[in-house]
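check this:
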Amino acid sequence: STGSSGINAEYGGIKCTGNRILASDNQESIHFVKYKAGENSLVAFADDTFPRWVTQATMLDYYTAAVGDKFGNLAVLRLPQDSKDNVEDDPTGNKAIWDRGLLNGASQKLDMINMFHIGESVTYLELATLIPGGNEARVYTTLSGTIGMFVPFTSREDIDFFQHLEMHMRNEAPPLCGRDHLSYRSSYIPVKATIDGDLCEQYNSLDPSKRKAIADELDRSPSEVSKKLEDMRTTYAF
């Protein structure tokens, strides 16, 4: 339905943080909407450039949202650094309604920070802590019963390590059916800024000779690589 926000969509979910609203639908991804209490109106000031059939969406912070869709994609979208919700520049909200930007949508567009194809429809997505004293991570469930999580890297060293480990694992542990791993994780949109933890975890199931070869490439011993994988997992989950 089309309301005072100027959105023509079928809403599937609404999340709120302060007077900022995250509205998701089954056609046009998500919209960041500002509620103006004085005028009792809604103004959509930012949206996504990619159409998504959103099944779950949640706010990670005031500027960032995580989105899961029907076709098994998980993405993190963030407002640009110079974005405004037009409260000061547009007191009535009329400018935001009529000032249409790219693709006849909102005047500001969200930046895609992360993108990953998990292959199953997302049924739940939330920011949560799974162990006492642990760090927060994005926990998701799927229609097939999978429970998974996305965890943030906290150092450049960890990013470099897991990027190189993933690169070697793509060569040493290809999918059984012969499909290219990178093309699968990019089935709808190219994978972005995300490491495949499931693939990296297969390191411990490789032949000792392959584990040793990969560890040498990473300038570590096989036991150090296994310990690194275990530390990453136990910090957030189990």
Q: What stands out?
A: The mean pLDDT is 88. The first helix runs from residue 94 to 98. Helices lie at 94-98, 156-172, 181-185, 197-201, 208-217, 222-236. The chain has six helices and twelve strands.
